């Protein structure tokens, strides 16, 4: 059994991840479900041979010492993959994620126009946050691609590993991979300013040193983008502060209030057409937000976001929009909400709970020949309400919201991972 054959099977099945572990057949995760791609269990010698086939001598030596190895590998005619090799129960395990090489546009991902506006800023700090598998890397790639198409400059990225390869268009790209092009994030970031960048991307802000570098880049007139693992924009601010000791918080609050341009948090939510769509929370650098951060009152930021001032929005507000447009079901909206009871009340206040559930796109198309609507050929007429005899129409008589096709899951190149470990470790129960 060759690793290339397994990776080709992953691609052919349209899967996102390949799991290789002992005492189990190789599994491919597609559409959120893991299925075997071989008829026998792998032994310890099988998994070790597959892992060794992807590493050179230096990487094998490093893996023997560190028991972890992260790789970015591309096979001609198959595709590009992000590989994590590890040990579990004293045997070798592998998780391979298929990385799409075609960079999607912000429009294809159906992301708000604020993404286009914020990435064209001349200077400042932009943080894109979310759980593992929420599409942060894909969104950042689309943002940089937008800037590449519309503004000249030099963009330096430090990634582990490189996932999307950016061609030079209006911008010149310097893409550095940790372990291949530079020894570490720290080493690369210390030398980044000497490369005369206009934009700097930090693939993942993991520690205080990286966070401090990001703030310094923004303070010195550069646009710096980075990712963090946090569940929403409000918690991102606390995560940033937790990098620093208490005696430095006043200094960091001041710096952040001056350089932060925005925090974008996102979640991928199953949509009514069987794919996934991004729900987005946005915190912008309004004067009110700046004052709260400067004074250390970050606990009050959430209240301002709920008012929607200055382009801010919460997850619940976006989930309500997605539900009202028929993109997601009520159940998915509530399951992905930070405050489901409040969201349910908003749905009820807006009259959305009285409407029929969105009809799947395929079924709606099949029924279009017999169903008519003033707004859409595929809308399902609603039953008359009790007061219809009076000539008035209730909300329940209006056409049901129709699903808007969300971007294919392949464009995101991501599936919800088995583990929450950002390094793609397999689940603890394997």
UniProtKB/TrEMBL annotation:
Tell me the ranges covered by the Bacterial type II secretion system protein E domain, including all copies.
Answer: 193-207
Identification of the protein by name:
PilT/PilU family type 4a pilus ATPase
By its UniProt entry, which Pfam families does this protein fall under? T2SSE
- Region labeled Disordered — which residues? 357-430
Checking CDD domains in the record gives: PilT
Q: Which family does it belong to?
A: Belongs to the GSP E family.
Query: SUPFAM superfamilies, alphabetically?
Result: P-loop containing nucleoside triphosphate hydrolases (SSF52540)
Q: Where is the composition biased (Low complexity)?
A: 357-393
The GO molecular function terms of this record are: ATP binding; ATP hydrolysis activity
């Amino acid at each position: 059994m060759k690793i290339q054959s397994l990776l080709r099977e992953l691609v052919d099945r349209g899967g996102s991840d390949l799991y290789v572990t002992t005492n189990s057949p190789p599994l491919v995760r597609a559409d959120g479900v893991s299925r075997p791609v071989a008829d026998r269990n792998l032994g310890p010698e099988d998994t070790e041979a597959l892992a060794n086939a992807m590493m050179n001598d230096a990487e094998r030596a490093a893996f023997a010492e560190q028991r972890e190895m992260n790789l970015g590998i591309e096979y001609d005619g198959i595709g590009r993959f992000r590989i994590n090799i590890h040990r579990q129960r004293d045997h070798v395990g592998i998780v391979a994620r298929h990385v799409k090489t075609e960079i999607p546009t912000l429009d294809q991902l159906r992301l708000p126009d604020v993404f286009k506006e914020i990435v064209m800023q001349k200077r400042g700090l932009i943080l894109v946050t979310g759980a593992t598998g929420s599409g942060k890397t894909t969104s950042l790639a689309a943002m940089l691609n937008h800037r590449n198409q519309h503004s000249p400059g030099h963009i330096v990225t430090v990634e582990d590993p490189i996932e999307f390869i950016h061609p030079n268009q209006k911008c010149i790209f310097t893409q550095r991979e940790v372990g291949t092009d530079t020894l570490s994030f720290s080493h690369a970031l210390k030398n980044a300013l000497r490369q005369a960048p206009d934009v700097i991307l930090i693939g993942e802000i993991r520690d205080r040193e990286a966070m401090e570098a990001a703030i310094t880049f923004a303070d010195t007139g550069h646009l710096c983008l980075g990712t963090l693992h946090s569940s929403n924009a409000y918690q991102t601010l606390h995560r940033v502060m937790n990098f620093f000791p208490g005696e430095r918080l006043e200094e960091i609050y001041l710096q952040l209030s001056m350089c932060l341009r925005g925090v974008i948090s996102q979640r991928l939510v199953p949509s009514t057409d069987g794919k996934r769509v991004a729900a987005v929370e946005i915190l912008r650098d309004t004067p009110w937000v700046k004052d709260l951060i400067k004074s250390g009152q970050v606990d009050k930021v959430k209240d301002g976001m709920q008012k929607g001032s200055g382009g801010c929005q919460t997850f619940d507000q976006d989930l309500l929009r997605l539900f009202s447009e028929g993109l997601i079901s009520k159940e998915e909206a509530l399951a992905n909400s930070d405050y489901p009871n409040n969201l349910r009340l908003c749905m009820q206040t807006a009259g959305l709970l009285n409407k029929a559930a969105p009809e799947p796109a395929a079924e709606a198309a099949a029924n279009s020949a017999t169903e008519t609507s003033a707004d859409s050929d595929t809308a399902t007429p609603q039953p008359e309400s009790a007061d219809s005899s009076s000539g008035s129409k209730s909300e329940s008589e209006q056409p049901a919201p129709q699903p808007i096709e969300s971007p294919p899951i392949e464009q995101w190149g991501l599936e919800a991972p088995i583990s929450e470990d950002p390094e793609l470790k397999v689940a603890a129960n394997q």
